């Protein structure tokens, strides 16, 4: 166990305030590569590995999405950034909302991709604890290797075996303790809909048309709570819209960045 700061991956050097891309579970910064490659503009693109995943060491702290948000804030402070556009996919969205609550000074705009602002149901929480225990005890990631079946949309699953293999390989690279820590962190997160009610910057909510993990109803709930959020549906994509169909996601995030950092 370590409390060392997670690694910050710079996907594009650039000018001005950065765009920060927070990955989903059980993945790492690599899931943002295709979006970063086509994101218009010249803002720096920063993609940290969240604690316990990718090259992020498993924190010694009690599992909490707040710990992950504070780690991102520390990383941003270390770069000297005064503010950033913060984008999170699924678990990354939970962290983005925690960051907007804990360090509103840092968050100029919010991109919430295939995520939700509500807490887990009791059943979902118990399922996470069960998986966390199983993975930690077995010290393998076998229990989550089948997740691409849920994460990817039907179109991707049926026509893109190479994408299924890529996501499976990324999951296989994760550490069992990191997966267990992340599951427990997500299980304990509170409802953060109120953050959207109070947030003053621009918000963009993105959802894959085939997302069954955090479907459009979750996206609509966030848009309804926000002052002026934009809702964008990405066709031909499931829960990993940023990987399955990166071009429209990049286009909408560029518009968000232009608005937030103007
Ligand atoms: C993710 O993609 O990050 C996960 O589906 C989040 C979750 O399990 O709630």
From TrEMBL:
<dbReference type="Pfam" id="PF00561">
    <property type="entry name" value="Abhydrolase_1"/>
</dbReference>
<dbReference type="InterPro" id="IPR000073">
    <property type="entry name" value="AB_hydrolase_1"/>
</dbReference>
<dbReference type="GO" id="GO:0016787">
    <property type="term" value="F:hydrolase activity"/>
</dbReference>
<dbReference type="InterPro" id="IPR029058">
    <property type="entry name" value="AB_hydrolase_fold"/>
</dbReference>
<protein>
    <submittedName>
        <fullName>Alpha/beta fold hydrolase</fullName>
    </submittedName>
</protein>
<keyword id="KW-0378">Hydrolase</keyword>
<dbReference type="InterPro" id="IPR050228">
    <property type="entry name" value="Carboxylesterase_BioH"/>
</dbReference>
<feature type="domain" description="AB hydrolase-1">
    <location>
        <begin position="18"/>
        <end position="246"/>
    </location>
</feature>
């Amino acid at each position: 166990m370590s409390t060392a700061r997670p690694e910050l991956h710079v996907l594009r050097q650039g000018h001005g305030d950065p765009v920060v891309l927070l990955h989903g579970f059980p993945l790492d910064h690599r899931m943002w590569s295709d979006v970063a490659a086509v994101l218009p503009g010249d803002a720096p693109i920063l993609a940290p590995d969240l604690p316990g995943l990718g090259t992020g060491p498993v924190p010694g702290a009690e599992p909490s999405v707040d710990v992950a948000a504070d780690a991102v804030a520390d990383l941003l402070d270390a770069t000297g950034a005064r503010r950033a556009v913060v984008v999170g996919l699924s678990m990354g969205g939970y962290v983005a909302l925690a960051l907007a609550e804990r360090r509103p000074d840092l968050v100029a705009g919010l991109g919430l991709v295939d995520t939700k602002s509500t807490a887990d149901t009791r059943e979902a929480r118990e399922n996470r604890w069960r998986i966390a225990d199983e993975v930690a005890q077995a010290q393998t990631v076998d229990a989550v290797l089948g997740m691409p079946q849920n994460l990817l949309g039907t179109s991707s699953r049926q026509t893109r075996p190479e994408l299924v293999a890529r996501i499976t390989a990324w999951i296989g690279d994760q550490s069992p303790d990191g997966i267990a820590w992340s599951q427990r962190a997500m299980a304990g997160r509170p409802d953060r809909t109120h953050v959207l009610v109070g947030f003053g910057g621009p918000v963009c909510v993105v959802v894959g048309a085939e997302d069954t993990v955090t479907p459009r109803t979750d996206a609509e709930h966030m848009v309804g709570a926000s002052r002026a959020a934009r809702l964008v549906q990405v066709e031909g994509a499931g829960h990993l819209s940023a990987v399955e169909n990166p071009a429209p996601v990049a286009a909408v995030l560029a518009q968000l960045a232009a608005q937030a950092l103007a």
